[in-house]
Amino acid sequence: MRPTRTLLALAVALACSTAAAAPDDDPYKVRSKASELMRRTPNAKLAEAYRLSLAGWRSLEENDLPAATEALERSLALNVDEPVAHYRFGRVLDARRDEPGALAHYELTIRNARTCPGPILASAYLDAARLYERSGRRDEAIRAYTATTTVFGGAQETRSAATRALSRLIQH
Questions:
Q1: pLDDT at position 1, please?
Q2: Rg of the chain, C-alpha, whole Å
Q3: Burial of 125: CB neighbours in 10 Å, binned 0-12, 13-18, 19+
């Protein structure tokens, strides 16, 4: 079986199990949304953007900054509004010591908070706060650290790091 067919089969299985797990009253209309998603053909351009974003993240984890940069630039060219790709590219720019560029991408992630997964959004706030703090923008750092602690779905480790940073900033 080709990888795309395997992924498609997994996606269909996930949609079916999600619909089956919905409560009887289904207040969030999970069943109808899952059914609608299964009727639609996936958008090839968005799928490729997602694949490139993931490849870029993997390259960053392997400290291959040129490959990470290339993959994430291509991903963002295909889907400029994707907050996760912006966050990942911000991390690449941060690793390249391009703090203004990194901050711009973290801020784009934050501006797209409505479509961003909680763990990524909280991390974007935390990383932006650290850059604000490093550049002497104390008030902005405090606001971003505070926002980090309130993001629904943010990792406990991320919230704890923000809480420690807030304590340090407020004491000084």
A1: 39
A2: 19
A3: buried
Distance (Å, whole) CA 133 – CA 145: 10
Residue in this structure with the two tokens 């490729």, named with its chain if needed: 48
For Cα atoms 47, 5, 35, give the angle at the middle one, nearest 5 degrees: 70
Q: Which domains are delineated in the chain? A: 11-40 (no CATH), 44-114 (1.25.40.10), 117-172 (1.20.58)
pTM score of the predicted model: 0.80
Q: Tell me the longest C-alpha to C-alpha distance in the chain.
A: 60
Low-confidence ranges of the chain (pLDDT < 70): 1-8
pLDDT in tens, 60-69: 999 999 999 9
Contacts of 82 (CB under 8 A, 6+ apart): 49, 50, 53, 75, 76, 112
Question: Residue-wise over 79-106: b if at least 16 C-beta within 10 A, else e?
Answer: beebbbbbbbbbbbbbeeeeeeebbebb
CB 89 within 8 A of CB 76: yes
